[in-house]
């Protein structure tokens, strides 16, 4: 049930070496691609990352936020063709959220790292840092990366919280 998946989903930054099978990942990417899309444009595409040298490069961009990528077994870069849809950021974000929940439902966990509107430790544009290395065309935006695997850490259980103070009827 989706509600249970949402409650159980937590960001994970340490993984075992176990990789999700590529066929399973492809199936999840297909379902994630069914996220809402303006005029059915579907500008979002994926780069599956599984090579150690690629993870080492990504981890070097940020001592704190990206270092977990050095040991990730698998990750997915979420990119989108900006020529296809001006709402590429929103669509890529929805697709990423779908993928995150699908990964959890499949018995794996994920950790997200944003590149769009972000910088590296050396104050470089994070999107450019990734775009150059992975040969991503200039007309593609790079939203972020989702590392995927079996968790190798304890994470706190999420609890429901009172929502009433965050709900405004008709006006703020």
Note down, in words, how this protein is organized.
This protein has 172 residues and is an alpha+beta fold. The chain has one domain (2-152): NADH Oxidase. Helix content is 31%, strand content 17%. The chain is built from five helices and four strands; from the N terminus they run H-H-E-H-E-H-E-H-E. It has helices at residues 2-8, 22-32, 52-59, 88-105, 126-134, and strands spanning 44-49, 74-81, 109-114, 140-149. A four-stranded antiparallel beta sheet has the order 1-2-4-3, with helices on both faces. The radius of gyration is 17 Å and the shape is globular. Belongs to the nitroreductase family. This is F420-0--gamma-glutamyl ligase. Pfam families: Nitroreductase (PF00881).
Q: Looking across the biggest beta sheet, what order are the strands in?
A: 1-2-4-3
Total individual domains: 1
Give me the CATH superfamily.
NADH Oxidase
CATH class: Alpha Beta
**What is the string of SSEs from the N terminus onward?**
HHEHEHEHE
Class per helix and strand makeup: alpha+beta
Rg calculated over all Cα atoms: 17 Å
Largest sheet: 4 strands, antiparallel
Beta-strand share of residues: 15-25%
Secondary structure tally: strands: 4
Give the termini separation.
32 Å
What fraction, in percent, of the residue positions are helical?
25-40%
| Overall CATH architecture | 3-Layer(aba) Sandwich
User: What fold name stands as the CATH topology?
Assistant: NADH Oxidase
Mean pLDDT across all amino acids: 92
């Amino acid at each position: 049930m989706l509600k249970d998946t949402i409650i159980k989903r937590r960001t994970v930054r340490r993984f075992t070496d176990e990789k999700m099978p590529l066929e399973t990942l492809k199936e999840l990417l297909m379902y994630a691609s069914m996220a809402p899309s303006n005029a059915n444009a579907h500008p979002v595409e994926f780069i599956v990352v599984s090579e150690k040298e690629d993870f080492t490069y990504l981890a070097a961009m940020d001592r704190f936020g990206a270092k977990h990528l050095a040991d990730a077994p698998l990750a997915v870069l979420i990119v989108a063709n900006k020529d296809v849809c001006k709402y590429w950021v929103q669509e890529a974000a929805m697709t990423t959220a779908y993928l995150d929940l699908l990964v959890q439902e499949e018995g794996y966990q994920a950790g997200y790292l944003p590149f769009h509107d972000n910088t590296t430790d050396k104050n470089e544009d994070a999107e450019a840092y990734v775009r150059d290395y992975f040969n991503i065309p200039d007309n593609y935006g790079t939203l972020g990366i989702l590392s995927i695997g079996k968790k190798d850490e304890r994470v706190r259980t999420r609890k429901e919280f009172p929502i009433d103070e965050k709900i405004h009827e008709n006006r703020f």
